[in-house]
Amino acid sequence: MADYTVPFTPRPSHIEDALVALHARAWFTWSDTSNKIYANLVVRTIVDKAGESVLYDKPSESSLNSDLAALQADWDAQAHARKRIMEYPDATTFMEAYTEKEIGGDSTKWDAYVIAYNKVRADNPK
Q1: Same domain for 17 and 41?
Q2: pTM score of the predicted model
Q3: Are 5 and 58 members of one domain?
């Protein structure tokens, strides 16, 4: 299954999302790209790295719907991670605070960073 923890990746919502997660490369297409429904799904023959032709089996519509539901459940389960990543202090704040503490001997910014970081974790439990 695909990893949907990136904060701006939209929630999987179409069987195409499940198809992309099944195999690498362009192994499928649509007979009508403006109407991407199961009936218009076409499995293509691809050539692997060894130069061999590969034809994947066309998955059943029910298996694609099950895979899509699993992708959606995985995505939903990561809501806290997406929220956290948007709320954590930025990397520049971290680097500045750490540098001032380690090189300058002043932990004021580091202490504030740690408080902000821990607040995000407390506000967004797993």
Answers
A1: yes
A2: 0.70
A3: yes
Judge contact between 98 and 45, C-beta under 8 A: no
Domain that holds residue 30: 1-77
Sign of CA dihedral 115, 9, 22, 50: negative
Residue recorded with tokens 């997406």: 82
Same domain, 65 and 105: no
Beta strands, E only, 1-126 = 28-30, 41-43, 45-47, 53-55
C-alpha distances out from residue 69 to 17, 65, 66, Å: 10, 6, 5
Q: Are residues 4 and 47 in the same domain?
A: yes
pLDDT tens readout for residues 61-71: 999 999 999 99
Backbone CA torsion sign across 27, 65, 77, 88? positive
